[in-house]
């Protein structure tokens, strides 16, 4: 059996990737130190646990601080990630967490951007989500609970999202006892804003839709999509479940702004056509990008 050799990452690409991981970790640190901590607002996951422990013990035990805690608490998860997910992911994640701890410690002497909890919640959540999203987009992670979720959900009947949400319920309940219920509610808001921002950063702003069209006039529909919308189509072979007749199915990817026009084109040619419109996680390809611009 021939052993498959894995290509090493291009040095320029590696530098580019680690540059954005540093930027992402820096933004997360800025959010934590200058928005969240001054207003007793936390994030979920390991970052949230580290913030609570820092609040409870840092005055009594100087060695216990956010930077040290976030590294130490993440180490077991990083080790598990190395064993089960991969060396590159583990190195990128460990680098990101160390950058987070180092940059956060360097921001201690800066005054907070705001002492208004609602402003800290909104902008802290946005900046944190932007930072964490950049780290994830470039192959790392700042939160070991997601790694644990990936590993445990292989054996448990839960999704990664459900597992992380379950863990965060306990973290925010703990925050309610430590900081008070009002601060815990701000924390949930900040977490939600960060979560949505992470999705936007990872998926990009060019949201796309995948459309499946079943029509007896598939040739005319396909030609119209190409000529009037400028989108190429892919023809798939299908079979009717009721009639057992062969069907040509059209598959096309469009931006969200083109969906309405696409439906109008299809309806003009075949009012009886069946359309299924689905969200796509990511779309790559020079031909598709060039069609947008």
Number of H- or I-type helical stretches: 11
Q: Secondary-structure element order, as H and E? A: HHHHHHHHEHEEHEH
The count of domains is 2
**Strand numbers in spatial order across the main sheet:** 2-3-1-4
Distance between the termini: 46 Å
How much of the sequence lies in strands comes to: 5-15%
Mean pLDDT figure: 83
Structure classification: alpha+beta
Low-confidence stretches: 1-6
Description:
The chain folds into two domains: 11-203, no CATH class; 208-292, Alpha-Beta Plaits. Helices cover 62% and strands 10% of the residues. It has helices spanning 11-36, 45-57, 66-84, 87-106, 117-137, 144-152, 160-179, 181-203, 218-229, 259-269, 286-292; strands spanning 208-214, 234-239, 246-255, 274-279. It starts with 10 loop residues before the first helix and ends with a helix.
Fold blueprint:
Layout: H1 11-36, H2 45-57, H3 66-84, H4 87-106, H5 117-137, H6 144-152, H7 160-179, H8 181-203, E1 208-214, H9 218-229, E2 234-239, E3 246-255, H10 259-269, E4 274-279, H11 286-292
Antiparallel strand pairs: 1-3, 1-4, 2-3
Helix pairs in contact: 1-4, 1-5, 2-3, 2-7, 3-4, 3-6, 5-8, 6-7, 7-8, 9-10
Describe this protein with a few key phrases.
10% strand, elongated, Alpha-Beta Plaits, 2 domains, 62% helix, four-stranded antiparallel sheet, 11 helices, alpha+beta, 293 residues
What's the gist of this structure?
This protein has 293 residues and is an alpha+beta fold. 62% of the residues lie in helices and 10% in strands. It folds into two domains: 11-203, no CATH class; 208-292, Alpha-Beta Plaits.
């Amino acid at each position: 059996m021939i052993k498959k050799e894995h290509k090493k990452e291009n040095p320029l690409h590696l530098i580019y990737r680690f540059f954005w991981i540093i930027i992402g970790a820096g933004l997360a640190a800025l959010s934590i130190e200058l928005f969240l901590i001054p207003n007793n607002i936390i994030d979920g996951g390991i970052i949230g646990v580290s913030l609570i422990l820092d609040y409870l013990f840092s005055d009594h035990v100087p060695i216990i601080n956010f930077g040290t805690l976030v590294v130490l608490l993440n180490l077991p998860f990083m080790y598990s990630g190395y064993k089960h997910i991969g060396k590159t992911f583990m190195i990128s994640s460990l680098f990101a967490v160390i950058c987070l701890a180092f940059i956060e410690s360097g921001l201690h002497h800066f005054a907070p951007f705001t002492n208004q909890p609602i402003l800290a919640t909104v902008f802290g959540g946005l900046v944190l989500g932007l930072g964490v999203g950049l780290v994830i987009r470039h192959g790392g992670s700042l939160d070991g609970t997601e790694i644990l979720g990936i590993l445990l959900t292989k054996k448990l009947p839960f999704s990664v999202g459900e597992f992380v949400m379950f863990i965060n319920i306990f973290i925010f309940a703990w925050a309610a006892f430590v900081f008070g219920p009002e601060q815990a509610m701000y924390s949930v808001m900040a977490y939600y804003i960060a979560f949505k921002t992470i999705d936007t950063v990872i998926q990009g702003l060019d949201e796309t839709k995948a459309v499946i069209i079943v029509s007896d006039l598939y040739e005319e529909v396909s030609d119209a999509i190409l000529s009037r919308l400028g989108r190429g189509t892919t023809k798939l072979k299908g079979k009717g479940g009721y009639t057992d007749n062969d069907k040509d199915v059209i598959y096309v990817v469009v931006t969200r702004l083109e969906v309405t026009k696409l439906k109008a084109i299809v309806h003009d040619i075949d009012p009886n056509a069946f359309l299924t419109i689905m969200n796509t996680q990511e779309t790559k390809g020079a031909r598709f990008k060039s069609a947008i611009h």
